[in-house]
Amino acid sequence: MNCQHCGTEITTQPYVINERTYCCEHCYLKTRDEYARQNDPYAVLTEILVNALDLREHETGMHSKRVACHTMVLARRFMKAPRRLQQIYWGALLHDIGKIGIADEILLKQGPLTDNEWRIMHTHPEKGYELIAQIPDMVDAARIILSHEERYDGSGYPHRLKGDEIPLGARLFMVIDTLDAMTSDRPYRKGQTFDIAKQEIMSMRGTQFDPSAVDAFLAEESVLRDMVLNKCHHEFSL
Predict the structure, then answer these.
(1) Neighbours of 166 (CB within 10 A)
(2) Residue 72 CB coordination number (10 Å)
(3) DSSP-assigned beta bridge partners for residue 189
(4) In angstroms, rounded to a whole number, what is the distance separating the alpha carbons of residues 38 and 52?
(5) What is the DSSP code string of 27-90?
(6) Mind listing the pLDDT tens digit for each residue in 68-127?
């Protein structure tokens, strides 16, 4: 089966836009969020950069696109300004772009990383910031990239920021990133259920996560459950 939007072959579960239109996950996400649909030069650039990282990591890129699209679900509870929302979208989409500067023997290593390798891996937020902050009108997105591995209680990296020192977009992204990571299949494990991820997120309210971000997550639970359900690879037939 081929995507009825972009024409690419669908090798996993098709997504249903309506009763008769089937598409790949990339096109499905574009229908869910206006910032994924834009064709302005910056929107095109962010897509190219994510695809460049995919070439390095040998990934499909859907994690980055999912978390960008669905971080918007939380962000819209806090703001309406299109420019601020766009910066959060770009920051979430490009959160791992700094990994493009990590050596293959570390980035693609199959076994556990050594302490020194982890120290190098932990430089990816700063590398990403240095790359994206050079682009006009993307400085706020770059700050989200720089801060996406921080923790609300100050235990994260690279600068051990805490509380409101962390940009709001990064604080919202952290919750969605954890949800997507926990509920996604990995080569070494099956994804967890939404309810298990929900309990984990709630247990880290006030430590890893901003309480207001967790509250927004709970308020949007039905939308986010739908997100998780739509990416599950259930058996499908026409």
Answers:
(1) 24
(2) 22
(3) 186
(4) 19
(5) HHHHHH-HHHH--SHHHHHHHHHHHHHHHHHT--SHHHHHHHHHHHHHHTTT---HHHHHHHHH
(6) 988 999 999 999 998 999 999 999 999 999 999 999 999 999 889 999 999 999 999 999
Residue 149 has pLDDT above 80, yes or no: yes
Banded pLDDT at 234 (limits 50, 70, 90): very low
Element (H, E) at 209: none
> What is d(CA 198, CA 179) in angstroms, rounded to the nearest whole number?
7
Judged against a pLDDT cut of 60, whether residue 60 lies above it is answered with no
- Give strand pairing partners of 186: 189
CA–CA separation, 136 and 155 (whole Å)? 31
DSSP at 7 = -
pTM over 0.90: no
Residue 190 structure tokens: 């099956």
Q: Is residue 217 a contact partner of residue 172, using CB atoms and an 8 Å limit? A: no
CB neighbour list of residue 33: distance below 8 Å, 6 or more residues apart: 68, 69, 72, 89
| Cα–Cα dist 158/145, whole Å | 11
Length of the chain: 238
Q: Which residues contact 199 (CB under 8 A, 6 or more apart)?
A: none
- Tokens 């806090």 correspond to 78
Radius of gyration of the chain (CA): 17
- Is residue 133 within 8 Å of residue 115, measured between CB atoms? no
